[in-house]
Every structure is written in C-alpha cells, then in structure tokens.
Design a protein that fits this description.
With 180 residues, this protein is of the alpha+beta class. 54% of the residues lie in helices and 19% in strands. A five-stranded antiparallel sheet has the order 2-1-5-4-3, sandwiched between helices.
C-alpha cells in the first residue's frame, strides 16, 4: 500500500518522467524508508539517515515544507547534495506528514531537473499531504497492532514454559508455589 502511495504521489504531483518519490518514517528516533518508487530515492534517503541531516529530516523536524529548487546552489547538507547530484537529482521537495503518537514521517519528491517543482506542485502537495498522512497513519497503526500481537504471543509462550518448569520443580521437590 505504501509503495502505491509513493508511486501515486510521484505520478500525481510532478512530471512522471522527471520525478520519483519516497516515504520516510521515524519511529523510536530511527528513520527508515517505508516506500519508494525507485532505488535512487532509497539511496538518497539512506544518505540523509547516515549523515543525520537533509531536506526530508529537516522537514520532519521543523514540520515545514522544504523546497530545494536547485541542488547546485544548496549548501545546507553537503553529503546529501553531493549524493543527489550524483544520482542525477537537481531539485527536491520534502513534506512532513502528520501522524499521531511517537511516529513521524515525510514525503520526499526528487526531480532530475532544477526547478522541477512549480508553485502549483507545491500547493498540490500541501493539500495532498493531509490524505497521505491518513493512509500512512493507518499503515503505522496496523503495524503497531501486529507487533503488539506478536509480543503478546511470545509472552504467552514464555509464560507456558515458566509454568511447566515451575511444575517440574514443585514435583521434584514436593513443594507448592506458595511463598512462606
């Protein structure tokens, strides 16, 4: 579902011949790319994560749209800028996605042209981000519920093992579970 959301974002919000997209999710202070349209977007996201800075991470931290119209003129994130230009990216647009709870997220748009995102694209992204946030919020919630279910199953399995061991010890020592 998230890959389709990224693909839809790239096709809807920019010239599909020149743009690609990814979605970053931060949980427990660890960023991860949960969807991307092509591997270039994933590599650029990972460059930001390893450097600890970049337009997407800045957008998420500041809860603001970060538009970089020409990466050739950008000086804030040297590692990211060098990697982006190496991937053929000349402009980027990063939008925070509003989630509830401990998770944070951002939508990352990359263009192979400088000034690849128009004012109209940016306006459309602002409106679109609301709906993308809802879809991502649902995916995060489903993931959290699945993780909780797995943790509960592991706890129950551990409890059964502990009860069996306790029973074996009690039988061997002819004692009860009661504390003195």
């Amino acid at each position: 579902m998230l890959d389709e959301l990224a693909e839809f974002s790239a096709l809807t919000l920019a010239d599909p011949a020149a743009a690609f997209c990814s979605i970053t999710l931060i949980q427990r202070k660890k960023p991860v790319t949960v969807a991307s349209t092509i591997v270039n977007a994933l590599r650029l996201d990972e460059t930001q994560y390893s450097a600890g800075e970049g337009p997407c991470l800045t957008a998420i931290r500041e809860q603001a749209i970060i538009h970089v119209p020409d990466l050739n003129c950008e000086r804030r994130w040297p590692d990211y800028t060098a990697a982006a230009l190496g991937e053929g990216v000349e402009s980027s647009l990063s939008i925070p996605l509003l989630l509830e709870g401990e998770a944070e997220a951002g939508l990352n748009m990359y263009s192979t042209r400088s000034h690849g995102f128009t004012g109209e694209d940016i306006d459309m992204v602002e409106a679109y981000a609301y709906y993308a946030s809802k879809a991502l919020r649902l995916a995060v919630r489903i993931s959290q519920l699945a993780e909780a279910k797995t943790n509960l199953a592991a706890a129950l399995e551990s409890r059964t093992t502990i009860d069996l061991a306790t029973g074996a010890i009690m039988a061997e020592n002819r004692c009860s579970q009661r504390l003195p």
